[in-house]
Amino acid sequence: MEPCGVMEAVKVTPVFPITSWQGKRVTVFGLGRSGRAAADLLLDLGALVTIVEEQPSQDFESTSKSYGLRGAQVFRGDQVAEGLRDLDLLVVSPGVSKDHLLVQEIGQRGIPIIGEIELAGWFLQAPIIAVTGTNGKSTTVRLIGSILQQSGKRAFVGGNLGIPLCEAVPRPAHPSPATDYEYIVAEVSSFQLETIHRFKPWIAALLNVTPDHLDRHPTQEEYRAAKQRIFENQTSQDWALINVDDPVVRTMALSARSGLCEFSLIQKVKQGVYLEGADIRARMHGKEFSIVRRDALPMRGDHNVANAMAAMSVGLLCGCSVEDMVLALQSTPTFEHALEVVREWQGITFVNDSKGTNVDATLKALHSFEEPLVLILGGKDKGGDFSQLADTIKRQVKGVVVIGEATQKIIQALDQIKPVALAASLEDAVSQAAAFASKGDVVLFSPACASFDMFRNYHHRGLEFKRVVGELQ
Questions:
Q1: How far is CA 26 from CA 39, 86, 110, 455, in A?
Q2: pLDDT at 273
Q3: pTM score, two decimals?
Q4: Domains annotated on the chain, with CATH
């Protein structure tokens, strides 16, 4: 049986019955944004909260003092084990691996281990639209949010891309618009999906799966298994939304017990959104109709058209009109750090794609341009195969500038393909790329790597790139 509309939200049963949070001993492992959101919710619920953090940030002292005033205990560094001694439940942040020795020891003691999205899911009443995949998650989630908001629907937009799901949970002590949300739209990562138990999206979207995070997931099979969990708790009243062009995704979706909705750049679909010639069309609830011409959308690159089609599929499932969807997509600005045009300088266009944190993302970025390219890449290796870039670089790229820890691995993969220059810093990389480029060229910053060797995160890296480009004289 396929669903035909929005399901009535059902209250989720926790990992173990919790009739009252008063006196429940809960430890939050990690004091990043999601950890703080979980701790705030638990304190509002009346739980006895302990917070542990192995790698304190610059604001740790003031943050821990604030939580201390609210009755939470906070442990740091080598005191972490002490904070994990007496607890009924452990909430781990996405940055804490399930293979962490202390986390494994907690599991061996039979203590439930969950993540922040699982905790939030126990209390959220609005239908959840969860989006995962190797690339395109943030863009798709933002496009879905724009479509729902343009259609007059009250939607929370967050998850892995910024605002933790716990912040959408209404609580009597802090009345907020959260009580009025009609939909919860969330980007969810493989790290977050590792720790779900009953997290159940009404729409579970899987965009694509290519090698990534092999520095965290020991094998590609484990990475895929984590992504596949997005379908785990769905029923026939829910939807699995998949990229039917990706054979890995098609195979993973076989486990889904929900209705199936598809999107495709290359073939008609039974139910969903597809590209036919220059037209984006839909088959939905027994009807077939045109949505918009592809060239009427401002997205650059096939991958972003696919992201837009995924967002349209969600919009149609939520009852949005074609007119509202098209208006939302046409008026949505370019997203920061995702093929973001930064500046034209001496006829050279500089593009910030700092969100390109793996090889597949950088390949998609390269395929989005017809202009001659100078590519800046490198950073912290995540286990990617940089040789997959070689053929595209040979055809489209005039020169490559490499930075970061992965430099030697990249050089070996691209040896004798194109001129490769080494840079000691981002400033040096931009300077060398600008010198190599000519009028009409594009300097593309798409690292194909994580940022943590030189920067706090991809956002910090992208801001620094924009700063350096802005200072060119």
A1: 9, 9, 14, 32
A2: 98
A3: 0.81
A4: 25-111 (3.40.50.720), 118-331 (3.40.1190.10), 340-470 (3.90.190.20)
